[in-house]
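Board notes, transcribed. Complex of a protein with adenine.
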Amino acid sequence: MNIDIITIFPEIFDFYLGQSLISKAQKKGVLKIKTHQLRDFTNDKHNTVDDKPFGGGRGMVLKAEPIIGALKVLGYFGGRSNRVTSTKSKVKVILFSPRGKKFTQKMATNWAKQSQLIFICGRYEAIDERVAKNLATDVVSIGDYVLMGGELPALVAIEAVARLLPGAVGNSEALIGERITKTGGFIEYPQYTRPDVVEIKGKKARVPKVLLSGNHKKIDEWRAKHSKVIE
Ligand code: ADE
């Protein structure tokens, strides 16, 4: 899978993506992540990416043209259509915005089946609405709060998707086999590891007995009872 990130802060990604399991996944060739500096797609000498809002108002708006330029370089709208529409094609152009559809596990499962994800990270007060209307296949929010830009949402989405890619994380096949529901949700239950007793605030905190029993039927029942399906 290829992930292309359009941002004015590519450095934000360098450190994080160079550290975690995601860096390993990239070395293994499971995932290829590339950042693109939005300012490189401007054509004035100050590399302007923002301008004042039509109709007046506070703050600045991210311009559509540099984003159009970046998408062209990434191979988009090579000619007739200037909207990325096909739902069949395995490419998604995702704009992060607090006004978007809520990001969910199901969405991550669907994105993990694509061959390319293009993330557009907003900054400033807003992004020219034509990006959402005419370019993005999906406008996505990671939650009902307003961040300063789309970079952290993009990282959140990368983590959620990368762990689902076969071969990306050590046990991803186990994850896919056992803990993904038919509808693309993910089953989470409490887990413990050794030792079976630890002392916390002067009291013994024990692992539930059933997990030490070796009785797999009972263990499965216990897990089912304590599970939360993340959808
Ligand atoms: N940009 C600013 N806030 C955001 C949010 N909550 N989700 C996605 N993109 C954002």
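The chain has two domains: 2-171, 175-230. Confidence is low (pLDDT under 50) at residues 78-83.
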